[in-house]
Amino acid sequence: MKKQLSIVVALLFLCTGMVMAQKKAITGTVIDGANKEIIPGVSIRVKGTTLSTSTNQNGQFSILAGPADQLIFSYTGYTAVTATVGTNTKIDITLESNTAQLNEVVLIGTRSAGRVKLETAVPVDIVNVSKSAATTGRMELTDILNYAAPSFNYNKQSGSDGADHVELGTLRGLGPDQTLVLINGKRRHSTAFVSVFGTRGRGNSGVDLSTIPTASIERVEILRDGASAQYGSDAIAGVINIVLKKTVNQFNINAGYSGYYDPTFNSKNSVVANQYPHGGSIDGNAVNIDANYGFKIGKEGFLNITADYSKSGKTYRQVHDTTTSDPKALPVNTARRANGDGSSENGTIFFNNEIPLSAKTTFYSFGGYSYKGSDAYAFSRNFLARPDRFPTTSTGALIPVDGIIFNTPNGDSYYNPLIETHNTDVSFAGGLKGSFGDAWDWDLSNNTGSNNFHFYGEKTFNASLGADKTHFDDGGSAFLQNTTNLNFSKHFDKVLSGFNLGFGAEYRYERYKIFSGEEASYKNYDPNGVKAAGSQGFPGFQPGDAVNANRKVFGGFVDFEVDITKKWLIDFANRLEHYNDFGYNFSTKFATRYKLTDNFNIRGSVGTGFRAPSLQQINYSSTFTNVQGAIISEVKIAPNYSPITQAAGIPNLKQEKSKNAGLGFTFKPVPEFSITVDGYIIKVTDRVVLSGQFSADDTSLDPSFTNALKALHVGSAQFFANAVNTTNRGLDVVLDYNKTIGDNRYRMLFTGNFQHMTIDKVNYPPILGKTETLQETFLSSREKKFILASAPSAKFSLNPEYGHKDFTAGLRFTYFGKVEINGYGDGSSIYPTVPADNGSGPLPDLYNYNGKVVSDLYFSCKLNKIARITLGSDNIFNVHPDLGYIKGAKGFAYNNEPAGPFDAVQMGGNGRRFFVRVGLTL
């Protein structure tokens, strides 16, 4: 195979100079139609080929093209323009502003040269990341997309171990690992982290978008349709394609500051502030600076480099009043005294590069390095409640440790363990692309990415060891992915009204490791079995958890795109993949679009999809030592191949499968106004979830299973299993109006997603589903609520904006619909209930987070030719989620996932944030 590929590549290089004499240098300038200013960074591409360039800082370009070639000029925020070369050697272009980019040429979802957004067969959103980032204090890409794209969802986690430190988003209410992420059309690797405790998307991994600097991104294309047949595993909900910048001879630098001013819930203002750690009146202070510059290489090559640094502080949120007579008050939160977001410091460098080697062959590469150090508070340890978690003398007296253990006015002592993570991410992609023969395009690439996620315990104790050691190496995990692709495509102009054939093959190698922590992070040193073992907050991975697993994936696809007539488009894709750990999968997709009129299109799609169980889910292992009365046992998350898992009757993990269908329309009644409406249904079978814990002492379980647990000294165990079938139904709506009158610009953008998910079936293993109690243990009512709460039933945004010359003012109203989440309950019932304060009986432990509107305000002004300033406020009215407690059962307040005043819902709980950003273009 390698020899054959070498021969193909050699032949391609021999053919590259054959048409040089037919090409000529085309130059020109691109300007803005409204203000007549030049536009740097405009993308110019020869239609039907991979040859492209961009305008320099003076708006000028140069590209080789033949008389019959067509040049496509596109830039985020402007309507694309196509020009035929003919006899011209100089072509000047004027681009008209189209802020919503509804006529932008998109490359995702098609293997042809790209289509205008309103004329694609499936819905695609385009997000101008630079503009979106400039009008908010939100720094992470995931957080920005949460407010910019209707069906993208993100819940900032708090008090949930490593999930506090990664940014995992979802599409259309599905899991983080059911959305495929691409960079420049190439598969992005996932994080090594697995969401296990205290988080939405439990049992999932996904792509951590915070490892990609926003300043390196030209635009983000979001394909809102199942695309496994086109791109492979993980594309059940859709595809996010991040397109990196290609600008040259232009230096952009941006600096920003933001901070939260929340007098309503800032712990500093509590009547019992001495019970809580806290910062100042403004907390969560964050600074960010990024720089981007592109070097021109030869006539048409470029190297674009981005560097980014950001640092953000912790937030502290509690209910202020603890007076029992106040209906809005809650008790002192002893479960998690330091409740809020963690802090982080992040540095990233990214690059994007293309170098034409000849008229028909281009070398390209991109990638980067990211390091993120974070720390977040775990749940509080309180001496009066659990003295076994504290370092004590032989007589049981507390050993005080300055700066870690604190005393409260009511005579208790506590400490708040810190979970630190070091998240290192490295990626590099390189390849050759070009054309040969009769306009056949080819692309040969190799893409490698790795993520290392390392845990540490800080300001905490292994109580069985004593008070001297307060920092622990808890171990962690690493994931590597290497993907090699060879793709071919050709457009046949004379077949019907145009026919594009694409086909190719992919080989992917993946490796997942778990490495253990230092001995003190997990070992029990107390022979009497009294003191708690392991690093409090996050016990370290044990040597028995260590994993080094890999797998290989082969795949091939064929993709047909046919313009049956000038009005009727059909897409048909098929993909076959083989995984060496579970076998074959075949996916197919059919999509079509019909132009009823020049401004009204109907589009629809049907297809099947799949998501391979990740290596993380197959191999994840975690062990916590439990000591009771000198009896040492283990709480185990057992990997899929473990004897414990096999004894439980859980089969090998297999792929999740999906069936999806979509139907919608696009309508442009007038040039300034566009409408897109798309309905969808997604049925997923055999979704992988993490089960609850089964005890070795449970007499209702099959003895063969409990005996296996006891033989391995495991007190309780839980597993990953293909447990759930779900159905998502939804509707996406985008309305966009843009009008320029003289020096005045008017924009009104509405985006909305309305969705409903149902759990159709739970696939109980025979041994673990014999009784209602066992079924509730396997997948509890609480876990079902978390699956359904991946997205609210409704989310929509209204963004009016006005501009006059160099000044812009805008508002953004974002509505997050109702979400329901169960608490832990008090353990008296298999279902989550808590006792009423008045003793009248149990109440359902159900938290209703009603719909709320978050209002943002921003002002932007171009000070001169090189400088711009933007300032404003996110959540200017300081709106918060409803409090997470049961009315009539305040004694069980904070019985939720983060042990805070509210759960991690999409709008967040930090309140009002002010920000200012300054940008320079040189």
UniProtKB/TrEMBL annotation:
It comes from Pedobacter cryoconitis. InterPro entries: Beta-barrel_TonB, Beta-barrel_TonB_sf, CarboxyPept-like_regulatory, Plug_dom, Plug_dom_sf, TonB-dep_rcpt-like. Residues 118-239 form the TonB-dependent receptor plug domain. Pfam families: CarbopepD_reg_2, Plug, TonB_dep_Rec_b-barrel. Residues 319-341 are annotated as: Disordered. This is Iron complex outermembrane receptor protein. Belongs to the TonB-dependent receptor family. Keywords: Cell outer membrane, Membrane, Receptor, Signal, TonB box, Transmembrane, Transmembrane beta strand, Transport. It comes from the Bacteria. SUPFAM superfamilies: Carboxypeptidase regulatory domain-like, Porins. Residues 1-21 form the signal peptide. GO terms for cellular component: cell outer membrane. Residues 374-875 form the TonB-dependent receptor-like beta-barrel domain. The keyword Transmembrane applies. It is found in: Cell outer membrane. It is a multi-pass membrane protein.
